[in-house]
Amino acid sequence: MRDLTRRRFLQFSGVTAAAVLAAGGTAVGVDRLLSAPPSGDSVLVLVTLYGGNDGLNTLIPAQDRAYQDGRPELAYAPEQVLALGEGLGLNPGLRRLHGLWEQQRLTVVRGVGYPRPDHSHFRSMAIWQTASPDTSVRTGWLGRWLDHAHTEHGADPLRAVSLEPTLPPFLAGERTAGATIRPEGLALPQKSLAEAYRGLGVADGGDSPLQARAAESVTELFTVAQAVNGALTPGTPNTLAAQLGAVAALVRAGAPPRVYSASLGGFDTHADERGTQERLLGELDAALGGFVDALAGVSRRVVTVVYSEFGRRVRANAGQGTDHGTAAPVFVLGERVRSGFLGEQPSLEDLDDGDLKYTVDFRDVYASVLEDVLGADVEPVLGTWKGRAGFETTTP
């Protein structure tokens, strides 16, 4: 009866999702990460801002008359922004990032986008996460990197780790995927149900490979909870600061992942944008600032990239918000990156049906990350793509 119950559970809970589990998309405990051989390799941290962050009120051309005219009540005055030069300044909520700029530890890649932009959150994020603007593909860009690493070095689910509630699609490959850790702990069934759920993870020789891997993931869930929950405060919100705090602790301990993923949502600011976005950018700023502080002594190993699926339109709407747009800045943080501006600032007067024209293809950023941070071959991930952003990292 146990076997029948477990099989039904796997089937009716969507056993097809076991394909991702079979590829390595699983939860891992902090104890397993910290027991692995120490790593001195460079580390990439990707921070995704979900919702379409308004790039023009993040990297602000406050002295541009077209900016002021297009946003009479939403625009920042020149004296309100944190000046960077070339007529641009950061949102006042980004004081720690401004400090990193002054310390020459911040690169701002301007006007990042892709051809024939899509205003749908879902399609645009899919494009960014798969690195495929022209066709739909099943794998994420770093999932393809994981697949290639799997071929060269064997399976290793600890090569890439997400601190988000779910695994982001860009970490899912055809044969392997990243792992997940939830910094707020794991909620498991009450004691009366716990043993029944444990039984679902008991190995059985009659299982198919996918069913066996899905069953194994149930056992791993309890292992992770035992390893992680005792070190974390139950119910702690999965904030960006908590995610990056866990990343910093793992990097300092020499944990083996080469890639970490974290995220912050809420940037779909169609109304009353200014206060909402400034608060969110302040949360981003505080989390990144705390992350940099926590990396003291090992920060040369880490390069952090912050991006969103698209920017917003130049003109404010009637609700004092902004609608879905196109090009926006990408931030690259670290001691090893060449500080300053990369790419041209899009013109606010030469628009494409009200949208900014991109000046840097996001795949240029990805190619530079693959080569300069991960030391990887670009071709298995991006094909014959030749562009590079050129932020020129140095060795750790």
TrEMBL record:
InterPro entries: DUF1501, TAT_signal, TAT_signal_bac_arc. NCBIfam families: TAT_signal_seq. PANTHER family: BLL7424 PROTEIN, DUF1501 DOMAIN-CONTAINING PROTEIN. This is Tat (Twin-arginine translocation) pathway signal sequence. It comes from Pseudonocardia oroxyli.
